[in-house]
Amino acid sequence: MLQVKNVSKKFTRQNSKGQKEEFYADKDISFEVKEGEILGILGPNGAGKTTLLRIIAGIMKASSGTIEIDNLNYSKNEIEIKKKLAFLTGNTKLYKDISPYELLWMTSEYYDMKKDIINKRIKELSKKFKMENFIHQRIETLSTGQTQKVSVARCLIHNPKYYIFDEPTSGLDIISSKTILDIIKEEKENNKCILYSTHYMEEAESICDYVILLNHGQIIAEGTPKEIREKTHTKNLRDAFFSLTEEI
Question: What is the pTM of this model?
Answer without folding.
Answer: 0.89
